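ok so I'm stuck.
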Amino acid sequence: MSTAFAMLAAVVLDALLGEPRRAHPLVMFGRIASLIERTLHADSRVVGALAWSLAVAPPVLAVAWLTHALASWMSWIIAAFVLYLAIGHRSLAEHARAVESALRAGDLETARTAVARMVSRDTDALDASQVAAAATESVLENGSDAVFGALFWFALLGAPGAVLYRLANTLDAMWGYRTPRFERFGWASARIDDVLNFVPARFTALTYALLGDRASAWRSWRAQAPSWDSPNAGPVMAAGAGALRVRLGGAAPYHGRWEERPALGEGSAPDADSIAAALRLVRRGVWLWLALIVAASVLVGGFDA
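replied:
not stuck anymore, here's the structure
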């Protein structure tokens, strides 16, 4: 039961407080990771894997030691606080609602500026529907990366699991690019993130399907996910788009050039309502996961008794 209630406490803390405005541990980790990368960088997969280990192992081991060495009630508090720092549910919602509000007000420039904080694509040339698509895609994908993935690994391995997952996800965002500098050095970061996300991404896709239009989600997941570049984002975004009955994917501008991407979902074109619906889908999914984990803990505790 302690794991279930620590998860519940972390989600409530995130809802009440959001991400720390100052001195977020992930910001500090990013600076340390940048220093490691600048110091060790070489066009080598082995060096990249070593750099990944040097960045991730110390904080994971430190959290593992703390949660085992301290009294049980202190370990519980630390675990809940660590998970609170690892999830970004409220932050995701705040960023998405800024885009939604601007679109509802007809302020396309503000909507473009707001969505630029959520996605890596160029936003200056996006029309209102494309802005809504970008925000909706970000909510669905980051629902998996920033929320459900951390919950999954916490449930499986406790606070060290959540730290491992979140730091691996951060390094993938920093180093996991197919650019001349990172294609080999960042290979380990990208592959480790793929492995850690494989199961939680599919649980996330299943959650979206169960809580939305099931038939559309299954069709989209089965037919469209295999054509997406990312083995984990494909199922999540295809199932999410299908669950929402909205058309996502398609052409998007990156670095001054429009790139064709596979279509996702089916139904209507995205708008401000699509962003709100995606946020509701993630929120309902979080509470479903918590309810299932608490119920499972009660059943296991009952059987143990």
